Amino acid sequence: MQTTDETTPPHSLSDWKVLFPYWKSEEKWWAWSLLGGAIGLSVLYVQSAVWFGAWYHRFFDAFFAGQVAHCLGMLPLYLLVTVGSVAVHVTQTYLTQILSMRWRLWNTRVYLRQYLSEEAYYRLEHGPNRADNPDQRIADDLSQMTVQTLKLGLDAIDAVTTLFSFAVVLWNIGGVLSFDWHGHHFHIPGYLFLGAVITTLTASGILERFGSPLIGANYRQQHFDADLRAGLMDIRRNSEQIAFYGGEEAEHLRLSGYLAHIATNWRSVVRYTWRVNFIGEIYTGIATVPLWLMLAPKAMAHALTFGLYSQINSAYTQVRISLEWFIFNYADLATLRSVLQRLGEFERTVSQQSETGIERFVSEIPSVQIRDLTLCLPDTTPIARIGNLTLESGERWLVRGASGSGKSTFLRALAGLWRHGSGAVSFNMRQAMFLPQRSYVPSGTLRQTLSYPATPDRYETLSCQRVLEAVNLAGYSHRLDEIANWRDVLSPGEQQRLAVARALLFRPAILFLDEATSALDEGNERRLYEALLSALPSTTFISVAHRDALCRFHDHEIVLGDGNAVFSALEK
Ligand SMILES: Nc1ncnc2c1ncn2[C@@H]1O[C@H](COP(=O)(O)OP(=O)(O)OP(=O)(O)O)[C@@H](O)[C@H]1O
C-alpha cells in the first residue's frame, strides 16, 4: 500500500502498551532475571567509575608531589579493578543481547499468530482498516523495538545511577560558593552540581525545540522505504506479466515515484539531523567552560590541586553525560517512538473485529444454509440479492451470471471473507474447500505444494501419485520430492489441475470452485469434473463458471443478475 507525503505518526499513549505483554508472559522469569542481571551489572560498572575517580584524585596528588614509589604501589589494584570492570561491562552487553533476542522471538511469534488468525492477513490487505506493509512491521519493527528499547532503557538506568553516584561526589568535593552581590551575601552549597544541571537542561530545551520534527520525518521514512521494497517485490512476483507487457518504463516510473518520496523526506531527515547534531556538538565543545568559570574562585584562592581538579572534572563530566542522555539519544528515542507507533497501529488493526454485516456460522449439519443473503459493496450499494437457499448434501450447483454480477463475491461471502451486506450463511467449514481461479502454489517440494494446507506427511506417496494421474499430471509423479518454485514451473492450467488434485486428496464434504478450471481446454476440464464427481460422489459442489459445457456436471443453477437471484434445476 502506498503512503503519501502527509503521513505523520499518530500520537497515542496506547502505543507504549506494545512493550508490556512480554514481561507478563510465560517467559517472564527469564525476562526479569536477564533484565535484573543487566541492571545489576550496570550499577556495578558505575560504582567502578566512582572508585576510579577517587583513585585518580589520590594517584595524581601523589604523582605531582613526586611520590613515584607510592604511585607504583597503587597500580596492581588499579589493573585488577580495570579487568573486573571490563568483565562487568561486556557481560552486561551479553545479557542484554540474549534478552533482546528472546524478546524479539517471543513478540514475533505472537504477531505471526495474530497475523495468521481470523484472516487478519486478508483484512489488512482488503478490509476498510488497513495497515501498510505488515511484513516490515513483523520483520523489522519488532527487532528494532526490542533492541532500541533495551538499549535506551538500560542507558537511562545507567544515566540515573551515574547521576546519583557522581552528584554525591560533586556535591561533597565541589564545596560551597560564597559571594557578595549588591550588598547581599550569597551562599550556594553544591553549586557545581547545580551548574551542571542548569547547563544541561538549557541545552536539552533548545534541542527539543529544534529537534522534534525529526520524529515525524523518521516515521515517514520507514513508510517510504517499505513502499519501495513492496514495489520491488511486486516486480519479482510478476516478472513475466511485466515482461510480456513490456512494462519496464511503467515500473521505472512507479518505483521512481517511491524514490522521490524517499528523497524528499530524506532531505528533511538530513536537515533535522544536521540541526540536532550541530546543537549537540556545539554543546559538547563548550560544556566544560562553565566548570572552569565556576572553579575560578577556588583556583584564585589556590585551593585547587591537580588531583582535586581531576576528580571534580570527572564527576562533573559524568553528571553532565548522564543528564545529556536525553540529548544524545534524541534521534534514537524518536526512531523508537515511531516504531512503537507503527506496531501499535498494526495491533489495533489486527485486533479490530471484521466489520459486521453478513454473519457466518459453523455448523455440523451436512447442508449449506443461506438465509436472507444480500451482497453489497463496501459503500453499501447492493451487488446481488440471494435470499434463502439450502444446498443439500451431494447437490451440485452452478453459479452463473454476467461478469461483475457478484459470483466471486458470493463465494467470498460463503467463505466469510466478504462481510458487506446482510444475512447469514452456515455450513461445516472444517469439511469445506475453496478452489479460487488463481490457486496458491507455494514453493518447496511438489509434495508440500500438493498437500497444502496440510503438512506433506499427511498423505501417502501412492495417494499423491494417484491424484496427479487423475488430473492428467502423471508426468510429475516422480518429482514429488523435488524442491522448486512451482508457481513458475507449472503453467496456469497445470496449477489449476494441481488445485483439483488437492481437493481429491482432501476429499471435502463441500467443494467451492470459483472458475477453478477456466485456464483449461474443454477436454481437460471435462476430465477433471469427471474425476471429481466419481471420486467425491457425496460432496456438495458449488461452481462458478461461464461455460455452458459445465451444466452437464451440475443439477441446479443460481443465476445472479439485476434483482433477486434465480434458482432452478438443470436438465440432464
Ligand atoms: N474489494 C472490492 N471493493 C470494491 N468493489 C469490489 C471489490 N471486489 C469486487 N468488487 C465489485 O463487486 C462486483 C462483483 O465482483 P465479482 O468479482 O463478484 O464479480 P464476478 O461476477 O465474479 O465477475 P467475473 O465473472 O468477471 O469474475 C464488481 O462490480 C466488482 O467491481
Please describe the structure with a list of short key phrases separated by commas or semicolons.
ABC transporter transmembrane region fold; six-stranded mixed β-sheet; four-stranded mixed β-sheet; single chain; transmembrane helix; transmembrane; binds adenosine-5'-triphosphate; 2 domains; 59% helix; 572 residues; AAA+_ATPase; Rossmann fold; ABC_transporter-like_ATP-bd; alpha/beta
**Percentage beta strand:** 5-15%
Specify the CATH homologous superfamily of the largest domain: ABC transporter type 1, transmembrane domain
Basic shape? elongated
- The quaternary structure here is single chain
Number of helices: 18
Task: Give the N-to-C terminal Cα separation.
Answer: 48 Å
How many β-strand stretches?
14
Number of domains: 2
Poorly predicted ranges (pLDDT <50, ≥5 residues)? Answer: 1-8
Which ligands are bound? adenosine-5'-triphosphate
Largest sheet: 6 strands, mixed
Please tell me the CATH architecture of the largest domain by its name: Up-down Bundle
Overall SS class = alpha/beta
Round the Cα radius of gyration to an integer and report it.
35 Å
CATH class of the largest domain: Mainly Alpha
Average pLDDT number: 87
The CATH topology of the largest domain is: ABC transporter transmembrane region fold
Lateral arrangement of strands in the main beta sheet: 8-11-12-6-13-14
Helix content: 55-70%
